[in-house]
């Protein structure tokens, strides 16, 4: 199809420019057509009496003064010119663009786009616009670009793509759906997004484009689900209930009701021949590991093998140690496989997996290497699932006869959103913490009120406990992050070196360095760990009692909650100290709610409602896919409608075999092919 042609079919696009476009994920003509602006500059002339202060707008009138350039610093100058607009005279100022002087002649007409100062009745000019061309667009799209490609180039190429293929854009959203929901066809979406003749056209296009984006995502989920529903694709695991009960009896605690319910849901799925694709969702510390252990064991009683994949070596070692202890009196052969497993041991484990002499393997990414083969893999469990890409999950699954999959996540997502986000999965939720948990006392202090916090840290260190000190990652500059972390490390070391060994852990360290430091902290050799957010991931150090988080207002609530969950795991009282000078009311409210509740789901809900600076959905923390246009929170109703539309469609025609679904079918097939490059 024409719009699937590579961008190199367009004039002026050679291999180099194609590479530059690829950095924006633009590879085909269609990618260009659907590369939408994130906002518009309004070039339409505005009635100044209605203009808001600091609004960006266009002023049009007659030049009534000679343009004058004045210097006011070694490299600074301003250009002033007066424009008569209706009955008023507006002073327009351009900074550091003296050459624009030539664009203004007394007595002629001029149009200028700029920022309006309503108090002074002046305009800070940004652009001089052409006044003659009647058909000049009134809204100019502004596109995301990077250092490899310029805004104007992207705009030119989109125009070229439109000229070439604007008439050949197939409609992927079925006509019936579009008519029912009053949505525009794809061609009108593309036109309205790029070249709207007014704000209404842009708005209508955007509405349809958001639906389209959500709908296609939901269709992808539905088609994944089709595979799972197909009985022939799955594996029945006839586990032994009595043996399972025997294991549960040896636990040093009673399972919570939520844990029991989750175990039952998972076991029921496993026994069935259809493929299991289930998400186990539970707040930090809710006890997901034991649920995983039980179902891993269930798999073994059915004479199948099981694999548990985790994101870090430290976590793999922790799980391995725990499960080895748990299975000590049971006939389970369990092995650890990570990047640092010594060669001989590694070969033995690989052999054992191949012959079936190893029942359970726990490991990191090392598990998805080519050399790892199983005799009869029945279940794959993935801990902290959002840390792995779709592709990595898939590779491990393909090592068996379509083994059952259990993904675990501690990111609390409100139920409504979970259904949409993980639509292809069934969800089990542990919504209850084990009894007798130590509450974590959370306090919020301003940066100049650190004294009590430092005293608390000292007391805890002297009592033999451990402390986490966290500083945020600021995406824009890794260098500044590192400086912040190093500075904090020096401050902490200076303050506490007499009572504690202090170590620094940051994102730019190599993996084995990180693991070594994490291990030293986990073993108690280091008592105070200064870290960027790398500690989020599941480590269990019960002796840690203080979590102090600097610039806490830079984190989302869910992230703060995750970090806080790293303490309060032992028998001693635990403390979480948030250090922040929030800049607005939302920031203050966010700090306050953290001190008031420890319920992850409630926090997630609040996060949705407040949507302040750092939100859970902005980052990969949530495991929610990143949408380009739609906002799964703000546009939730649309997401929901799209989900229902996709579900209905697939119920009626699971294979999308009707001719009118051909474009959609083609789209999904292409998506599957390029799946590997998605993450
Ligand atoms: P997470 O869900 O964050 O992965 P873990 O599985 O690490 O949580 O469990 C946290 C701690 O709670 C562990 O030390 C575990 O042994 C303990 N635990 C799990 N279930 C129970 C329970 N039902 N009663 C008491 N303690 C439990
Ligand atoms: Mg865990």
UniProtKB/TrEMBL annotation:
InterPro entries: ATP-dep_DNA_helicase_RecG, DEAD/DEAH_box_helicase_dom, Helicase_ATP-bd, Helicase_C-like, NA-bd_OB-fold, P-loop_NTPase, RecG/Mfd, RecG_dom3_C. It catalyses: Couples ATP hydrolysis with the unwinding of duplex DNA by translocating in the 3'-5' direction; ATP + H2O = ADP + phosphate + H(+). SMART domains: DEXDc, HELICc. Belongs to the helicase family. RecG subfamily. Residues 449-614 form the Helicase C-terminal domain. It comes from the Bacteria. Plays a critical role in recombination and DNA repair. Helps process Holliday junction intermediates to mature products by catalyzing branch migration. Has replication fork regression activity, unwinds stalled or blocked replication forks to make a HJ that can be resolved. Has a DNA unwinding activity characteristic of a DNA helicase with 3'-5' polarity. The keyword Repeat does not apply. The lineage of its organism: Bacteria, Bacillati, Bacillota, Bacilli, Lactobacillales. GO terms for molecular function: DNA helicase activity; hydrolase activity. The gene is recG. Gene3D superfamilies: Nucleic acid-binding proteins (2.40.50.140), P-loop containing nucleotide triphosphate hydrolases (3.40.50.300). This is ATP-dependent DNA helicase RecG. Residues 269-430 form the Helicase ATP-binding domain. The keyword 4Fe-4S does not apply. Keywords: ATP-binding, DNA damage, DNA recombination, DNA repair, DNA-binding, Helicase, Hydrolase, Isomerase, Nucleotide-binding. PANTHER family: ATP-DEPENDENT DNA HELICASE HOMOLOG RECG, CHLOROPLASTIC. NCBIfam families: PRK10917.1-3, PRK10917.2-2, recG. Its EC number is 5.6.2.4.
